[in-house]
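Kindly inspect this chain:
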Amino acid sequence: MKKILIVEDDESIGELLRDYLEINGFSVHICTNGNEGFKKINDEEFDLLILDVMLPGMDGFEILKKIRDEKDVPVLIVSAKKEELDKIHGLRLGADDYITKPFSPGELVARVNAHIAKYERLKNKYSNKVASLTIRGLEIQKDSRRVFVNGREVNLAQKEFDVLLFLAQNPNRVFSKDELFDKVWGLDAIGDVATVTVHIGRIREKIESDPSDPQYIETVWGAGYRFRM
């Protein structure tokens, strides 16, 4: 049974979502403040997280920012904040989806199912191919989704790993930001291609000895990005 954590300070919303999700076969846990939710995420393993933004204690964006480098799990943001900048901010921090209140509980359940299924397809797709890639001191272990640079492990967020692996599996080919967004996030994803630039920058900070002079992911000005073999 898949485990889901809901971090939502409105108890009526949290309980409604729990009822819908449990009817659909999920095991659901609820936390009503950010600090409690953050501790729960670090103490236990979940298959998907649902985070409200405006929470007592640590807010949803702060939780997402703190966990993204450590936790490889789908995250759905649920918020009354409807501004496009808030949505873009959540997606840039690593959220897989952003749903504004009020919303249909049935739609949320459908999105939960879709994101868990997509995550499992990605894991199966990567594990069914070569177990790892090694390029000039960079090792990408696809089944365990771990990355090592000269033997030292670096922690990549879910989408950072997906971007790096996709580029490494397609070396020396230039991909535009639009192409990368479509390939990694999906055609139906909500967001902005600017998030691709943000993720590339974060990947470089973690795997490059000099991010200003990258040896793995090159910028091809006016065209996009290329993984150099």
In short: Residues 72 and 99 are 20 Å apart (CA to CA).
